[in-house]
Amino acid sequence: MSDLPAEPTVSIKTRKSTTLLQLFSFAIPTVGAGYMFCLVSLYLMKFATDVLLIAPAIMGFIFGVSRFWDAVSDPLVGYLSDKTRSRWGRRRPWIFASVLPVGLSFWMLLAPPDNLSDNLLVAWMAVAVIGFYSAQTMFVVPHMALGAELTDDYHERNKIFGARHAGWIAGYISALATMYWLILAEGESSQAVRSLAAEQSTYAAAVTGVMLLVCVMFVRERPEFTGRGAENPFTALRDIMRNRHASLLIFIIFIENLGGAVITILTLYNAEYVLNAPQMAPFFILSYMVFSFLLTPIWMPIARRIGKKRLWFCSMLVTAFAFGSMGFLQEGDDIVLLVLAAIAGAAGSCGGTINPSIKSDVIDYDELQTGERKEGAYFSAWYFVSKSAYGIMLMVTGFALSWAGFVPKAVQTDQVVDTLRFLYAGVPFFAYIFGALMFLRFSLNEAEHAEVIAELERQGKR
After folding, report:
1. How far is Cα 406 from Cα 403, in angstroms, rounded to an integer?
2. pTM confidence score
3. What percent of the chain is predicted at pLDDT more than 70?
């Protein structure tokens, strides 16, 4: 780093470091959110098709409709949180308001009444799916925006979002126990699964609510950013698309998440219907999550040494290799499966730490160009893109499995198995490779970011 310019002088207003209490309070809600997203992402589709007996195409359609609604709700929440004025700040009122809808919608997903007709059951799940993602938007977008505000430091942001990623993965790991119990309950009866799912969703809703309140109580916002949001959502969107760094990231995130979504959606299907080892699915996911959690701290010093861009680029290539290799696995390759999962988890923790840190730097660049602080608008755009990729792949996989002739709880035809292999390994491989190649065009580095912050200080905005 000797060729980089010296760090600019930091004024009193510029925040460089965060306390342990801030880090803990900021990260703790993601444990509950991670738990919920784990079950929704990895198990809900299987729960709906195998337990509730809803056709994959119908569930795919429901998820697709929810993405259309996200096109309205995500930018609206981002814009409104940027414009919010209160004694709590801009972000915490939204996090507080999300407590009840987050818990209620998650409970609805896993606890539909037993006596519903087929049509009413589909309607219930549609409301629950749309409600869940809307409620999560109320939390995730302001929470990510809050993380970007906590510090201006190029590398301190890695620590903040590393803590957030670790909390998220901790939630995923805790959800694996629940998912394992649910899979075991499938061997008893559908009613056993439904009873257990309803019980666990109730506990999760309550605990997550407490975690959200901890964040609201102990994290403090920066008053100098209040009142500096965009005039309206359309000008915010215009600025995002004019920001060359942000528009490139939108494309990369969309492509990358197409690949990641398939893994999330089809892990249980791949284990049961391709590898004939449904009992291995929780261990595969556990291997991924444990290595993702344990290796999170190492990316911070490595990023200081080689830079965020180079590190994230390498993680995309490793992810492509790990997931692409899974297409060659055969029945009995359990150890290889776990090793590849560990490699993918390590690379995933890198992306989960560095990705939002880079996004925060891009928001500083926008502030220099426009004079506005619109973290909510930016993170809502990126969040919508990632959810859209997930929704698209849910529709694609749902229709692809129906087209191939998928039959729940049965021996699948060669056509179904080949379809699962291509979706599970081929799509992620090509998506991450293409995303990595596009990321080579990204140019906002540490030196340029230091110049951005220095100029903002000269303008009195720090």
Report:
1. 8
2. 0.87
3. 97
